[in-house]
Design brief:
- By secondary structure, this protein is an alpha/beta fold.
- Among the domains are: 92 residues, Nucleic acid-binding proteins (OB fold (Dihydrolipoamide Acetyltransferase, E2P)), CATH 2.40.50; 269 residues, Rossmann fold (3-Layer(aba) Sandwich), CATH 3.40.50; 158 residues, P-loop containing nucleotide triphosphate hydrolases (Rossmann fold), CATH 3.40.50.300.
- It is 36% helix and 16% strand.
- It has 25 helices and 24 strands.
- Strands 8-9-6-5-4-7-10 form a seven-stranded mixed β-sheet, with no helix packed on it. A seven-stranded parallel β-sheet has the order 14-15-13-16-17-12-18, with helices on both faces.
- It is globular.
């Protein structure tokens, strides 16, 4: 024995690792034999023991085996979980759970958003593998996945350049080499000479000829039948194999009723196929189904599921709208006192669009039910003024108003502007933010609680504990999609049933208004105030940076001001700050005759406010900034903006940044610096932002390119309400779903609740936000 008393381990030895293959039922159509995965670091004894212990624990947590289906749950009738009362101000209700599985499996399924057997049924494949037909080796084309059948001629474990199992096969006419880099000794025995293998994978040219690397392997004989349907490939997570996930889904398909929630006559009129038929086809498509119709989701089975999903959304939105109309809220008629005084005090006239939006909001506030209106308009369209008029109408009726913004810069901009407009009218405006010192924060909160403050403006600090409104009648939320569910519900919870006005400078595409925002009333300000000049946009390669420097020097020499926006680095806020500091130092050295300022997200709020005040007062000519200036900054004398690495930013963000200039009467310019090479997506984004300043067209293009996430915020927090439908491609289905939802609700159809429960379940909570 070596010194120290420790026995030397033989190289390659394993502790507690199974060498026998585990049999899996043929119905799973994956492998006749599934081999255990190699355990990382299995040469280490303690790790091997721990890994084996973990596998035994996982086996204990698997569902009990059913007849003919080892490792899968027996069909068990599980009562549906009772509805749970939930505090909607703090958290969403838990999802239903009727899975028969152990904690380890449940945890993995939860990562996929699966909490019930119905979730398993609606966990649809990403793609399919065709294992229903055999391809002769001679006909296999490189790069295409095929199923081949061949007999093992020889196998060998090679150790150079690394340990590899190499298997030579033949189908009688052509040869095929198999290579496995991670393998178990049992696999060597499995693929012994003379064995007949069914292999699925991509054939590609190799050193010895045609080869497959890590194909899917199944030992067969001449009588082994081929699968009757395509093999689904599902989205999965670490520790959940395709074979196991398929097994759980197959069990759910076999044990759930999957009856239709829609009447046969309606399905016939809409030319839709049955729900069960559609689901089964998508999980078990026959080989003659056109693969393109499955891939692009145009198959009638996909159409049925997309319609059901859109219908559930429309039903939920309409029910939420009707419930709100049935609640009572303080009536606030327009008394034309403070509102008229504000309009007369302004040095400009309201635009036609502002007057129209204001008239609609004034009418809503006078009603006895809660207003829930989304006010949207392009950057610089004058939404803040309309919000000020709404606030004054509430204040005229002795109600308090809260205005919440997502950032302190934006909240402070609102405070300065609204205090300038409203305090001369005798309105008490308070500012409440997290950066205030404890004494100032306490004084502001006490003034709000006593009712002395008529308009409170701030960030998330407005809905913290210790801030209580005496008579909150109107809650205004700016850039509403940036707030989470709990935050927005907490603010509205400060009043009994306050009216809500939500503002968005990101125009909402029509299809989103018809779907995700169908429960809201929408007002649009679709024109800019007179005197605004359109911003000219230039796309400039980074190689022409010196020309941009000269343009800044010339612009500032004429008395104008400029922004320099540093590149967006999503992976690292620290790296983004470093880049901003380096750019600041470089530009200070480049422009010794100019006052250069810096603002970024890591600065203290009072420091940030001081820099912005200096910029607005023209004490700073060039402002280096990260994207914290994206919204809310209003400096009319700033006529030039340079955006570095514009190719990294989304369309909505580029449009918002560009909206910081062009707020005065001078000609304004936005220079978008980009770095080569450009991806196709980046090229498409820059082409759109260069070609139009129409926020609604930009929003439509952004929706096409990136999906609805940018616009939804809380409405998709952890639970997107649409998984299958595409808002641009399925416009006809949205219209159809709206029509059917109205009919079902007017007829008080009993199918409404069943349909909602199937498709939304606990996620209806997010509609409250």
């Amino acid at each position: 024995m070596p010194r120290g008393g420790r026995r030397l381990r033989r190289r390659g030895a394993r502790d507690h690792l199974p060498h026998r293959p585990r049999e899996v039922p043929g119905g799973e159509r994956d492998h006749g034999v599934v081999l255990p995965r190699a355990v990382p670091g299995a040469r280490d004894g303690r790790r091997g023991v721990a890994a084996a212990r973990g596998r035994r624990r996982d086996r204990r947590h698997r569902p009990p085996a059913g007849p003919g289906r080892p490792g899968l749950a027996r069909p068990v009738a599980v009562p549906r979980s009772p509805r749970v009362a939930v505090d909607t101000e703090s958290a969403s209700p838990p999802p239903r759970d009727d899975l028969v599985a152990g904690p380890a499996v449940r945890e993995k399924l939860a990562k996929l958003g699966i909490h019930s057997r119905l979730d398993l049924v609606l966990h649809l494949p990403l793609r399919y593998e065709d294992e229903t037909r055999l391809t002769p080796l001679a006909d296999a084309r490189p790069g295409e996945p095929v199923l081949v059948e061949a007999e093992v001629v020889e196998n060998e474990v090679k150790f150079r350049p690394r340990r590899t199992l190499v298997v030579k096969c033949t189908d009688g006419k052509s040869e095929l080499w198999l290579r496995f880099l991670n393998f178990y000794p049992s696999q060597v025995k499995q693929m012994a000479p003379g064995r007949r293998l069914r292999l699925f994978g991509e054939v590609r040219p190799g050193f010895f000829g045609a080869e497959m690397v890590h194909p899917k392997v199944r030992v067969v004989d001449e009588s082994t039948p081929l699968p009757a349907s395509l093999t689904p490939v599902y989205p999965t997570t670490a520790g959940m194999s395709q074979a196991n996930l398929r097994g759980f889904i197959e069990h759910a398909l076999d044990t759930l009723l999957l009856d239709d929630t829609l009447e046969p006559a309606l399905l016939e009129r809409l030319a839709l196929q049955g729900f069960r038929e559609s689901v089964l086809l998508l999980h078990r498509p026959p080989p003659d189904v056109p693969p393109a119709s499955l891939a692009d989701r145009t198959h009638p089975a996909w159409r049925r599921l997309k319609f059901d999903e859109l219908l559930a959304q429309q039903l939920a939105m309409r029910i939420a709208y009707r419930e709100r109309r049935g609640k009572s809220a303080p009536r606030m008629p327009d008394r034309h006192t403070l509102t008229n005084l504000l309009v007369k005090s302004l040095p400009f006239a309201l635009t036609r669009a502002q007057k129209k939006a204001w008239a609609t909001i004034a009418h809503d506030l006078a009603q006895p039910h809660p207003m829930r209106r989304l006010l949207q308009g392009d950057v610089g369209s004058g939404k803040t003024l309309v919000a000020a008029l709404a606030a004054l109408q509430a204040i005229e009726n002795d109600w308090q108003v809260a205005l919440m913004a997502p950032t302190e810069i934006l909240a402070e901009q609102h405070y300065l502007k609204l205090a300038h407009w409203l305090e001369p009218l005798g309105v008490k405006v308070s500012w409440l933010a997290g950066s205030l010192k404890a004494r100032a924060k306490k004084a502001a909160a006490e003034a709000i609680a006593r009712g002395e403050t008529q308009l409170a403006i701030g960030t998330h600090a407005l809905f913290q504990e210790g801030v209580d409104f005496q008579r909150l009648g109107l809650a205004i939320v700016d850039e509403q999609h940036r707030f989470g569910v709990a935050q927005r519900l907490a603010l509205t919870g400060k009043g009994t049933e306050p009216h809500q006005l939500m503002m968005s400078a990101t125009p909402i595409p029509r299809t989103l208004s018809m779907s995700y925002y169908a429960d809201l009333d929408v007002s649009v300000i679709d024109e800019l105030p007179p005197g605004r000049t359109p911003v000219v946009t230039k796309l400039v390669d980074e190689s022409r940076r010196d020309e941009v420097i000269q343009r800044i020097r010339a612009s500032c020499a004429e008395g104008a001001q400029a922004y320099w926006v540093c590149p967006l680095i999503e992976e690292s806020e620290t790296l983004q700050l470093k880049t901003a500091l380096e750019t600041f130092e470089t530009l200070k050295a480049t422009f010794p005759d100019l006052a250069v300022g810096l603002v970024h997200g890591r600065m203290k709020p009072d420091e940030k406010a001081q820099v912005m005040a200096d910029f607005k007062a023209r004490r700073v000519q060039l402002l280096v900034a990260t994207t914290v200036i994206e919204v809310g900054v209003d400096v009319p004398n700033a006529t030039l903006m340079v955006i570095e690495h514009a190719e990294r930013m989304g369309l909505a963000q580029l449009h918002q940044l560009r909206g910081r200039v062009g707020r005065g009467t001078g000609r304004s310019l936005a220079i978008l610096l980009y770095h080569q090479p450009l991806s196709e997506m980046a090229r498409a984004r820059l082409k759109v932002i260069y070609g139009t300043t129409d926020g609604f067209e930009i929003a439509r293009q952004d929706l096409l390119q990136r999906g609805p996430g940018e616009y939804l915020g809380a409405r998709q927090s952890g639970a997107p309400l649409l998984r299958f439908a595409d808002l641009e491609r399925d416009t006809d289905l949205i219209e159809l779903a709206r029509e059917v939802a109205d009919t079902m609700l007017s007829e008080r159809s009993h199918a409404v609740e069943r349909h909602l429960d199937r498709w939304l379940g606990h996620r209806q909570f997010y509609l409250k936000a």
